[in-house]
Write a structure and sequence with these properties.
Shape: globular
Largest sheet: 6 strands, mixed
Structural class: alpha/beta
Number of helices: 8
Distance between the termini: 20 Å
Helix content: 25-40%
Strand order of the largest sheet: 5-6-7-3-8-9
Length: 244
């Protein structure tokens, strides 16, 4: 369940003036970002735009050279990385992978797998799962932390279009049920545009941000990605939450 001690008007995480350099190369410059409870914020941008670097900075996995990151003291964060480097010879079961989150109850593990649409996988080997199954198991592990903030880096990579649409529906349902904030990194621009509350378009800096329908018409977005056509806008999520 969500941590009800947290003030709904306070960001679950906020970055101000974030700047990151690798040697002489500027990866991020003067980036502001925040995520509140019960909202889905989608971070989009071309390859090499600094999306994963920004996520790592927000999670405290690397320290930005400039700017600051803040988060309330008791925020619980669930994180699903872009990919897992699993040794093909390593006998790592789904059960063992999930137990690394500190939960060993078979009932609880089965319940969370069922919740993410991956039932009956508990005793399967991680290395033998399909791309879609592995992504759902990674989401399950992130949810075992009962997060206030769920951070998903390219959660639908290696999943077909039909599977991606269902996955975004699942993410929206998780937000509605748990009232958690979600920071989503994605390349599925046309799908994500219609299933998120706020979009931040990144290309080393924030090119534009705001509601999806506004961003999709912004000249900076159109320069990077072109038009969003109705033919590929497959899913629209409706909910009744008011965001701070």
């Amino acid at each position: 369940m969500a941590n009800n001690d947290l003030n709904g008007t306070e960001p679950l995480v906020a970055g101000t003036g974030i700047g990151v350099r690798h040697g002489n190369q500027t990866i991020l410059h003067d980036v502001d970002i925040s995520v509140h409870r019960s909202e889905i914020v989608t971070l989009i941008g071309p390859n090499g735009s600094g999306k994963t670097t920004l996520v790592r900075s927000l999670l405290g996995l690397q320290k930005p050279k400039f700017g600051s990151v803040s988060s309330p003291k008791h925020v619980r964060i669930g994180y699903s990385p872009q990919s897992l480097a699993i040794d093909r010879t390593l006998p790592l079961s789904v059960r063992r992978f999930l137990e690394m989150a500190g939960i060993r109850s078979t009932e609880k593990l089965c319940e969370i797998l069922d919740k993410v649409g991956a039932p009956n996988l508990l005793d399967h080997e991680m290395r033998l799962l399909s791309g879609g199954e592995q992504k759902r198991v990674m989401l399950a592990r992130a949810l075992l932390r009962e997060p206030d903030l769920l951070v998903l880096d390219e959660p639908t990579a290696n999943i077909d279009v039909h599977g991606r649409t269902g996955f975004y529906e699942l993410i929206a349902a998780i937000r509605d049920e748990r009232e958690c904030g979600i920071l989503l990194v994605s390349h599925d621009l046309h799908l994500v545009m219609s299933s998120t509350d706020r979009v931040i378009c990144l290309n080393g800096h924030v090119c534009c941000s705001g509601k999806p329908d506004i961003v999709s018409q912004d000249p900076a977005y159109l320069e990077l990605f072109g038009e969003v056509t109705p033919a590929v806008t497959l899913y629209t999520h409706q909910h009744n939450h008011n965001h701070a």
